[in-house]
Amino acid sequence: MKIKTGKEEIGYLLEKVIDTYERATGQRIVRNTNPKNYEDIARLLSLISNELPNTAQQLGHDPYPPDPNPKQVDYPHRKYDITGVQVKDAYHKLVANPRSFLIDACYIYLYGVGRKGFAEQPQDAQLIEGVDAAVALRLDEQEALRQQLEASQQEKEAVSTQLRASFRKKTRVWLVGILVCLALLGAVTARWIADRNEWATIRKDLNILPYQPTQAEIDSLSGIWLYYTGAPQARASDPNRFHQVANNLVEITYKDGYFIFNRHGANIDHIGYMQFEAPALVSIYSRVKNKSGNVESPIHALLRLDKGKSYLTSIATTWSFDMGDGNDMIGIRNVFIKQGKGGSLEEITNTPENANCHCKIMKWIQSNNQIKTFQLKYRLLDTLADESLKALINEKSILLREPREGVILTPALSKKHL
Hints:
Keywords: Membrane, Transmembrane, Transmembrane helix. By secondary structure, the chain is α+β, with helices and mostly antiparallel strands. It has two domains: about 130 residues, no CATH class; about 200 residues, Lipocalin. About 40% of the residues lie in helices and about 20% in strands. The strands form two sheets. An eight-stranded antiparallel barrel has the order 1-2-3-4-5-6-7-8. The protein has a three-stranded antiparallel sheet with strand order 9-10-11. Strand 4 and strand 5 form a beta hairpin. It is rod-shaped, with a radius of gyration of 54 Å.
């Protein structure tokens, strides 16, 4: 097959170059005889033609000698520059023998190979001389397939580029997310370690939970207890304080190494906690229960779990709970008598029994659904039936913070006071 030559060849090539350029850029070329209209095409083809000395083997065209002074001049004065006049004349088929580098530049722009490479494998039937209809059809089909393949390759490359960009973006997002998570994890871990070390220091300095009680010790301390105190005898403002004692009801519950409790009194309720300091030795802290949550009248005590006794005694630093400035710290012995375990406590209010006894009434609903009631009130020591209990909470059970005559009444002072 022979490729067309001369003005027929270059005229067809430039027609197709201009059509392709217009589709690619959206710019319309006015195809009259004004050379300026063809300068954009000329510059485009010059970019290709000036590389011809370096692309003969790669792009399949005849070799071209290099430009002797390629860096000393600019367009359109370089050896292989194409001008608007040349494009205009060739397009209008005014040139019988167009320049070879113009022809090769057109082939490379349209088909990706020079004229020599195109002749070896024609891609456009319109450039072949004497081609019959069947051959032209086959070449057109080949060209259509080539264009489809090229379009498919471009689409594939575009999709691949998009996927790579999306993957890179997602990778960056994942990396940022991982780094943020690692930073947060590091901060949380550092904070946790600091808090743990701080808690370990506080626990050591304040001697918190120094001893883990046995199950037998837990069982022996947990439950419902009657609590007796002679603290009312230290209230100097009460003329009837002699041998005044009070009973409270205490509910003690074990909780992960320590105990919490509620102490229900005739007038004042307390809340607090207990912990074992050593085997059978319990420290007690409590305060007045109030709505504000502020610490009011804190109490510290020690309790020994004596085996074989029907009661336990504690030594406490507490308060006289007198009025105004008379409320002062005192040391006192208190008595615990265990009632049992389990169940729940409820206060009974607004009943005739409350009015008759002038006291707080607590109801203990035991695990077997039996009910036992307790009257919490102030009473005279001498009304207690248990003689051993009387000796534990009489006037000798109280120690004032500073010695003061006439505060703790003895039987002799009580008669004088009357």
